[in-house]
Specification:
Chain lengths: 983, 220
């Protein structure tokens, strides 16, 4: 074999390993662990085996068996501890199963002779056995390391393992996979289906019953720093040049320990120790691990694969750059219009790292932005890169960095640490007094401006900073350094104080400062209490009413009377008489509004029929190949909704379709003004009865618009469609004539025009669209709850439509029905429900997509968890996107309505309403927190990621112990109140 | 001798992220539930936020795990659902055959997906168009198969199918087709795979046969 071929082959072998490594690493990212039986593990083992077999000196070593690498393992076991471990395991497995070698079945491997034994795949390729084991035991890289270092003993001179480049690359490639956790716990058909929430909760109950206290009682106001606990994993610690190759591998992948936050190629750096004079291009990446952020830069020469040239690359490993961000204090940014900008990192030691030159295209800003995000929550850029306005959702970068009008603009950011002094939180009153003292700490210390080419604008507040002559004596340097050290400590501390103070100020807005005592309130409002509170029909002591409700809820039968108070519909101090008048007014107004939109609905309904007829007619005409369509389907109405307004004769694409002639007939019948009687009946039965009532309304509308409301009321069965259809014969005739007449009518006068053009086209369309949505969602609202019969669903629909009609600018949004439903169940009265719903929506509307309450909720959740449960926060943060809190979305949107069963919804809602007057107007936050805390141990012990937690809470819906959650939420409010009160 | 080295990993447990998009009420959640648990609940809730379920599916002897994401259909909830588009492997564009409007909105859904999923311009993404509620009476139908296929042709989508979550017709097939479609594109992409460049240039032209379910399909 020629040298070239040989090399090419080795390159291919390595490339194959790389590919499989990549596969495995990607798998670990998407799935949190890799299954031992995963195909990619097998492939990886195969690829490794191929590398290890190549150039093996079998003869010299006396290795003639088929699986010679296994023999090799046993051989080196004498010298390598890692190999010895694996060798022993392999032998144990082989001994434990005498059939092992002859049978390809590994069923018997499930015998738990060794802890890991039964982990073996059910259909393994036996020759990879040791490689698999070594991988699962995380020893593979070390074993190969050993082989590489001692290659001359076992391998031919030109073997891959003996190759100075390929050998070390091989072992370094495997470091990543060796750091992963492999799982074998799942049966093949459940490979990636995570255990259902039920099971998790069950498991937790069992395991925690004897060891840990119930999560509810767990103190969550802990300020422990969990950051240092387990952060120093092996991967992040390897910083020596010897391991650069390994880092290279990591740079390529986002693996289980490190998240790739930023990656950009062709970033120019002039390596410090390079004998080149020009900055060279390379791949810049930003990684996040448990212990912090790392910036890496890898020369392109190392990025371009291994197959192209034979050049010695070891020198490039020396050029590669790796900077841990926690060693960096300042980030200098130089911008000029020529290039994409330069970033210089300055370390704690004052030494600057090689300048990083970005290509054009906003990459520097992107990079800084990634750093800023990555620093959270433990650190931040100071001043912040993004000036954030709380109310305004838009984030704008500092003007200096966005787009540069000036040719040159420099900026210095300090990397501020938020956590350093976390443990001294309790002293923070003391700190508060200091906070006002210094100006904004856009601090820049003198020494850092030594960066040669920097024209940095100094933000120094150290007025003594000498722009002194070069002839500085040693003493001055020492002084300067001392000052630096002191001031750095001071500013670090200062930044921390500011942070704490911000958090405190921020969180103090979430709870009421006055702590209300819950004594004697745990029974809530009972009938007896209510009789005390409501003397002669007048409720005066609203504070007590709120207090009792907050701490103990309301007896179910009283809700109908009390909720209107809580929601603000009834005024405290009002008399029975006043409230009756109010109810009458409300009812009148409601009915008036209803008559308005009912008329519009009739028109919309009519238009719908037309357009539907069009659509169907079009389909039929396609299928009928131009057969005559009933003349009644004339589009002389307002059917411009759809653009495919082709006439019947103008037959569309005549493509044949297996269409039955019956259909054509049905269509004909449907729009025929003189249908056969039986066909008509059948159709009526199929139709939603609503259609009838709409036709009735068309009648009414054309007869007497003004009296509609009272007429409907007089009818008394407006909502009871069944009754209308079955009993009211006079209506029935109406329906008959008008149901049939409507197409005919449409040929002469459209309902729209019959109403004198009162309604604009736009209004009709907007309302029509809303109507359809409402209908679709009402049909799907709480259908499994006894209350929602067809009849009551129609009440729901009416309330919803009335609200939307009155608030067309807001419009219907999914979720509103869910908010109406419990009110309707309690009141069983449309107008009262409507009035209370309007009050409820004053707060809730902000949660819907147009408002910005949801963002605030998420931000507040973030702060609360950060302060109240740092361990949880760490977990969430380590899973990246998690902190978006999307899994809370439904909770906040519907005030937990979908999370709880109906009785619990009532109990929860009234507490939320009362809470603002007693403890917190953001009580929902504490409920959310309580829910999280209730399951915190499950979440933490299962190391749930973003998707897990969404799934978990979706599955836990309606299974929570509401009483416990409510009481925990109240506790949390109190804890925060105490914390802020700081006594 | 390099043949074994270059073998493809057996991907019997590949995880595929599937998002189901379409107007509210077209039956996305019902489709997902029919597929995952073979159940149909006429009165299921409309979706708030996002939900997902996992389900294994076997194609050509290999098992794939589908992680199916179901989102709310109302346009206004865009900011909530779009973050979940990223990293999708398959996108199901769903409408109801008795709702022309939902069909018209397919374009919007496709655009929204492409925009937020960050799919590269010239990359063929495995879309599948689903016309749900095929069980409805013929006289309720507002969108014909031909219209669906025409739209797919115009949008260079080669997989489409009519389903019914209610009577289970074609539901398994729809998901299977989607995975097969993904596989074909994936295989094609693989040939062009290049390990260390971050831009993978895929063949821009689509050339393979369309899925069998499009009976009247013409060639692209
Ligand atoms: N006839 C028929 N009805 C269906 C079918 N699939 C769903 N439905 C009905 O259509 C309605 C809406 O179904 P969903 O699955 O909730 O719709 P969705 O697309 O998830 O809607 P959103 O969650 O609002 O986005 C339900 O009431 C179902 O009963 C079907 O195949 N045939
Ligand atoms: Mg849904």
């Amino acid at each position: 074999m020629s040298l070239n071929n040989e090399n090419e082959y080795k390159g291919r072998l390595i490339a194959a390993v790389k590919k499989e490594v990549k596969q495995v690493m990607e798998e670990s990212v998407t799935r949190k662990f890799v299954h031992e039986e995963s195909g990619s593990v097998t492939s990886l083992c195969a690829a490794v085996e191929a590398c290890l077999s190549q150039g093996l000196r079998r003869r010299a070593l006396g290795l003639f068996k088929t699986s010679s690498t296994t023999a090799l393992l046993h051989k080196i076991a004498k010298h390598s501890r890692e190999a010895a471990i694996i060798s022993k395991k392999v032998q144990e497995i082989e001994n434990s199963d005498p059939n092992r070698r002859s049978s390809s079945s590994s069923e018997s491997l499930t015998k738990p002779t060794l802890k890991k034994n039964h982990s073996l795949p059910s259909t393994p390729l036996p020759k990879y056995l040791w490689i698999r084991l070594a991988l699962f035991e995380k020893q593979l890289a070390k074993i190969i390391d050993y082989l590489v270092s001692n290659a001359n003993k076992y391998y031919d001179k030109d073997a891959l393992v003996a190759d100075p480049d390929y050998g070390s690359i091989l072992s370094s490639l495997l470091v990543g996979p060796c750091a992963l956790d492999y799982s074998r716990t799942k049966t093949p058909d459940h490979f990636w289906t995570d255990p259902p929430a039920d099971e998790l909760v069950q498991r937790h109950r069992i395991s925690s019953s004897h060891s840990t206290p119930p999560p509810v009682r767990r103190p969550i106001l802990n300020f422990r720093r969990s950051l240092n606990a387990s952060s120093e994993d092996s991967i992040t610690n390897r910083t020596t040049t010897q391991h650069l190759a390994k880092d290279y591998v990591e740079s390529l992948h986002q693996n289980s320990r490190a998240t790739l936050l930023f990656g950009k190629n062709n970033v120019l750096v002039l390596p410090v120790n390079a004998d080149v004079s020009q900055p060279m291009p390379g791949y810049l990446s930003l990684h996040q691990t448990a212990s912090g952020l790392t910036i890496k830069w890898t020369p392109n020469q190392l990025m371009n694969g291994f197959t192209d040239e034979v050049q010695d690359k070891s020198v490039f490993w020396d050029y590669a750059l790796q900077v841990r961000l926690d060693e960096i204090v300042y980030v200098h940014c130089h911008q000029d219009s020529e290039t994409g900008g330069t970033v210089i990192l300055v370390g704690q030691d004052g030494v600057q790292r090689p300048p990083i030159h970005f290509p054009k295209g906003g990459h520097m800003l992107a990079f800084l932005s990634c750093i800023e995000t990555g620093l959270l929550p433990r650190g931040r850029l100071d001043p912040p890169l993004w000036s954030q306005r709380c109310s305004n959702k838009r984030r704008r970068p500092l003007p200096a960095l966005s787009e540069t009008e000036e040719t040159t603009k420099d900026y210095v950011f300090r990397i501020a640490d938020n956590t350093t002094h976390k443990d001294i939180l309790k002293q923070n009153e003391l700190m508060d007094t200091h906070i006002a003292l210094p100006p904004k700490s856009r601090v820049q210390l003198p020494s850092t401006s030594t960066s040669s080419e920097s024209s940095t604008k100094s933000f120094s507040i150290d007025q003594n900073a000498p722009d002194s002559p070069p002839s500085i004596c040693i003493q001055a340097v020492c002084d300067s350094m001392k000052r630096q050290i002191i001031s750095r400590a001071f500013y670090g501390w200062l930044a921390y104080c500011r942070h704490l103070s911000t958090v405190r100020t921020h969180l103090s807005g979430l709870v009421n400062s006055k702590i209300v005592n819950g004594e004697g309130a745990s029974d809530g409002i009972t009938v007896e209490k209510w009789n005390e509170l409501c003397t002669d029909g007048v409720v005066t002591d609203h504070a007590e009413l709120y207090r009792l409700t907050y701490f103990g809820g309301i007896a179910h039968d009283l809700r109908k009377d009390l909720w209107p108070y809580l929601l603000g519909h009834y005024k405290f101090g009002s008399t029975t008489q006043q409230r009756m008048e109010l109810s009458e007014e409300t009812k009148q107004a409601y009915e008036n509004t209803m008559s308005e939109w009912l008329a519009v609905e009739a028109i919309v309904r009519q238009r719908d029929k037309e357009t539907q007829a069009n659509a169907i007619a079009k389909l039929s005409s396609e299928s009928m190949s131009g057969e005559q369509v009933p003349a009644q389907i004339q589009r002389d109405l307002s059917n411009e909704v759809f653009e495919d307004n082709i006439s019947d004769e103008d037959s569309g694409p005549n493509v044949e379709e297996e269409d039955k002639p019956e259909r054509t007939r049905q269509n004909t019948i449907k729009y025929d003004s003189d249908p056969e009687q039986d066909e008509k009946e059948e159709r009526y039965q199929q139709q939603q009865l609503k259609d009838f009532i709409h036709n009735v309304i068309v009648t009414n509308a054309s007869v007497d618009m003004g009296n509609l409301g009272s007429e409907i009321e007089a009818n008394g069965h407006r909502n009871d469609l069944d009754v209308v259809a079955e009993e009211n014969s006079s209506l029935d005739t109406c329906i008959e004539t008008h149901g049939l007449a409507s197409p005919a009518m449409s040929t002469c006068v459209s309902p729209a025009s019959s109403n004198g053009g009162v309604y604009s086209q736009e209004l009709l369309e907007t309302f029509g669209l809303n109507l359809h949505r409402i209908e679709k969602d009402v049909q799907r609202c709480d259908r499994n709850y006894w209350y929602f019969t067809v009849e009551n669903l129609d009440k729901l629909r009416n309330v919803m439509c009335t609200y939307v009609w009155e608030h067309l600018d807001i419009g219907y949004m999914q979720g509103m029905c869910d908010l109406v439903a419990p009110l309707l169940v309690i009141f069983n009265d449309e107008s009262l429900t409507y009035a209370c719903f309007c009050h409820l929506m004053e707060r809730m509307v902000e949660n819907f997509p147009n408002g910005n309450a949801m963002d605030c909720h998420f931000a507040n959740m973030r702060s609360l968890i950060q302060i109240l449960d740092s361990e949880m926060y760490e977990l969430m943060h380590s899973h990246g996107d998690y902190t978006h809190f999307y899994f809370c979305y439904r909770w906040f949107l519907l005030d937990f309505k979908r999370e709880l069963v109906y009785p619990d919804v009532y109990a929860t809602w009234e507490v939320i309403w009362a809470a603002q007057h007693v403890a917190s107007s953001h009580f929902v936050l504490f409920l959310a927190l309580a829910l999280l805390e209730t399951y915190r141990d499950i979440i933490l012990s299962n190391c749930m990621d973003f998707t897990d937690i969404i799934k978990f809470f979706n599955e836990m819906a309606e299974r929570h112990n509401a009483a416990a959650v409510l009481s925990l939420a109240r506790d949390l409010v109190l804890q925060l109140q105490l914390l802020i009160e700081n006594k | 001798m390099g043949s074994r080295v270059n073998m493809r990993p057996t991907s019997k447990n590949t995880l595929l992220k599937v998002v189901i998009l379409g107007d509210g009420g077209v039956g996305k959640s019902c489709l997902m539930n029919r597929f995952v648990s073979n159940q149909f609940d006429e009165h299921s809730f409309h979706t708030i936020g996002v939900e997902f379920l996992n389900k294994d599916i076997e194609i050509d002897g290999e098992t794939y795990t589908l992680q199916i994401w179901d989102t709310a259909g109302q346009e206004r909830f865009k900011t909530l659902r779009t973050p979940f588009y990223r990293g999708s492997d398959i996108c199901m564009l769903t409408y109801a055959i008795d709702d022309k409007h939902s069909f018209r909105n397919l374009q919007m859904w496709k655009n929204e997906f492409l925009y937020y999923a960050d799919v590269k311009e010239n990359v063929q993404f495995p879309f599948i168009v689903i016309g749900n509620k095929s069980d409805v009476e013929a006289n309720e139908r507002e969108v014909s198969q031909v219209e669906m296929e025409t739209w797919c042709n115009e949008n260079a989508i080669s997989a489409c199918i009519e389903t019914s979550a209610k009577n289970a017709s074609n539901v398994q097939e729809a998901f299977a087709t989607a995975v097969q479609h993904w596989l074909r594109l994936e295989n094609r992409a693989d040939k062009n795979e290049c390990l260390y460049t971050d831009t993978v240039d895929l063949t821009k032209k689509q050339s393979e046969n369309r899925t069998s379910c499009c009976i009247n399909a013409s060639d692209e």
